[in-house]
Amino acid sequence: MNNITKYIWIGWTSARSNLAYLAEVASRGVFLFVILYIFLQLWRVTYAETNAQELGNLSLTQMLWYLGITESIVLSAPTIAQEVDEDVRTGALAVQLIRPLSYPLYRLWTTLGERVVRFGLNVTVSIVIALLFVGLIPLSLPGIFLFLLSLPLAFVLDFLATFLVGLGAFWLENTTGLMLIYSRITMILGGMLIPLDLFPEQWQPLLKNLPFASIVYGPARLFVQPDLTFAGELLLRQAVAMGVLSLLVAWVYSTAVKRIHANGG
């Protein structure tokens, strides 16, 4: 079995493992249903009070679809930082290192397998809610293709950031605080709660170029308003962010592994 096949099989096994616990995954769907319904009511009041047909160039229908995609992305995130943190603190990482696998790649493919299942269920719930309460938005095959092209890159980008947070366990007692900060920043600056187009105009260029926007705002915006130019810019930002974060992860990981050797594992 070559390397690529090996890691694909790891991802497939992770996805099947999550399918075996659908009740746990479905409970997240119930939570998502409640959250989206509350957001729908809040945005209905906002559109009514401002007497606006569009906010941030999004109609109320598009806004609910946008929120459905952003919530599906954020709530599908596995607890990779906590798992890496635990591997480091319990010494399980030393066992992982003697296996014929790259630990970061093993974690990446495990995460992707798990996330595909979670996102699939989340987005199904979101679509049902959107169809029930606001109806369908215009969709096109090229638009869906561009969205599906940017989504895996968003998942990989999110993995690199959370894996980096988990590696912090080599120097910190616990990375829970760091992960809490990262998740809250992603929710706010990534555009999960409010589209970045509704932020002050002078902030928007900076926010849209941050990696958080490439994880949440970019794919969701591409889904509700497909645009080839926007897609090109998003894919470029994702590629640059992945390159920078990959180098950072490689440097931190190699430094951390040397600490294991120095301490005898």
Provide a count of the helices: 12
Describe the main β-sheet briefly: none
Quote the distance from N terminus to C terminus.
Answer: 29 Å
H/E element sequence: HHHHHHHHHHHH
How much of the sequence is in beta strands?
under 5%
- What's the mean pLDDT score? 87
Oligomer: single chain
Radius of gyration: 20 Å
Structural class: mainly alpha
Write down how many β-strands occur, each being a DSSP E stretch of 2 or more residues: 0
Low-confidence stretches: none
What level of helicity do the residues show?
over 70%
- What spatial form do the alpha-carbon principal axes imply? globular
List the helices and strands and how they pair.
Layout: H1 3-19, H2 22-50, H3 60-75, H4 80-90, H5 92-97, H6 103-133, H7 141-167, H8 176-189, H9 204-209, H10 211-215, H11 217-224, H12 228-262
Helix pairs in contact: 1-6, 2-3, 2-6, 3-6, 3-11, 4-7, 6-7, 7-11, 7-12
Describe the fold and architecture.
The protein is mostly helical and 265 residues long. The chain is built from twelve helices and no strands. It has helices at 3-19, 22-50, 60-75, 80-90, 92-97, 103-133, 141-167, 176-189, 204-209, 211-215, 217-224, 228-262. α1 crosses α6, α2 packs across α6 (103-133) and α7 runs parallel beside α12 (228-262). The longest helix has 35 residues, at 228-262. The protein is globular. The model has no long low-confidence stretch (mean pLDDT 87).
Summary tags:
single chain; 265 residues; mainly alpha; 12 helices; 0% strand
